[in-house]
Write a structure and sequence with these properties.
Shape: elongated
Order of helices and strands: EHEHEEHEHEEHEHHHHH
Helix content: 40-55%
CATH topology of the largest domain: Rossmann fold
Number of strands: 8
CATH class of the largest domain: Alpha Beta
Radius of gyration: 22 Å
CATH architecture of the largest domain: 3-Layer(aba) Sandwich
Largest sheet: 8 strands, mixed
Length: 271
């Protein structure tokens, strides 16, 4: 099987390596990226080749690829920033002979674009809920049209000890409002509001929260900005913080108990 990975950033490189190393059958990997140097670095690292956005493919040694090599791939994997997913799917679907999948982090919109541009091919949206260096982890997937290529990618991710589980686009995107948009907003809000303190003063709550601020701000700002733009939730954090700040003692106690009951109910539902 041959795969074209659209996007040579951290997630695209991770997916390319996973397919090369752990797919149930041999996979050759090519990369395309507006940043040609990033595409070449990814291809060189994996012994793959580069596809030029304009359509002139090259091997890792820079030589022009053959017409057959420049033609199509069994599967096209979209690993671009969230705002670019629709354009990337439209542009590179013609390269996909059998399947097109994405790992962009949103599901409803990419799946709709795949359905529009690839109605006769296998389609799936995977979302690794971790940075590549933190693998293994959870990987929700929506399989819109199953087949051997999609199954091979699903098996590849499971073989790397990830928990791959099926969901729906609506369920996934709603969950991301909490586990990404609201979570990141709350952590970053604490980072903005907090003042530096001597570590000796940290509590068992404040220390891990400060560590989370460090973890989040050590990432790529654009990725977090894209998440906030794609999913609702940040406004809810602002409203909740204002409600807490304005609460009198009785209201605060009532709110405190309500939060505890809500969390307990959620745990019981997920047992």
């Amino acid at each position: 099987m041959d795969a074209l990975v659209v996007g040579a950033g951290a997630m695209g490189r991770w997916l390319g390596q996973a397919l090369r190393d752990d797919a149930p059958r041999s996979v050759s990997v090519a990369f395309v990226d507006p940043d040609r140097s990033a595409a070449h670095e990814a291809a060189d690292a994996l012994g793959g080749r580069v596809v030029d956005p304009a359509g002139e493919d090259t091997n890792t040694d820079g030589e022009e690829a053959t017409a057959a090599e420049a033609d199509t791939f069994d599967v096209v994997c979209i690993a671009v920033p969230l705002p670019a997913s629709g354009d990337a799917i439209a542009a590179y679907t013609p390269r996909a002979e059998r399947a097109i999948v994405d790992v962009t982090g949103q599901m409803a919109e990419p799946l709709a674009a795949m359905r529009e541009h690839a109605p006769d091919r296998e389609r799936a949206s995977f979302h690794p809920l971790f940075a590549p260096e933190s693998e293994p982890g959870n990987v929700p997937v929506v399989v819109d049209e199953d087949g051997p290529a999609v199954a091979a990618i699903r098996d590849t991710l499971a073989a790397r000890d990830n928990h791959v589980f099926e969901t729906t686009a609506a369920e996934h995107d709603e969950a991301m409002e909490t586990v990404q948009a609201r979570t990141h907003a709350a952590i970053l809000a604490f980072g903005l509001a907090a003042e530096p303190v001597d570590p000796a003063f940290h509590t068992t709550v404040s220390e891990p929260l400060a560590d989370l601020v460090e973890q989040v701000t050590g990432g790529e700002p654009r990725v977090y900005a894209d998440v906030q733009a794609a999913f609702d939730g940040a406004e809810d954090i602002a409203a909740a913080a204002e409600e807490i700040a304005d609460a009198d003692s009785d209201t605060f106690e009532s709110m405190y108990r309500r939060i505890g009951e809500k969390e307990q109910s959620g745990r019981e539902q997920n047992r």
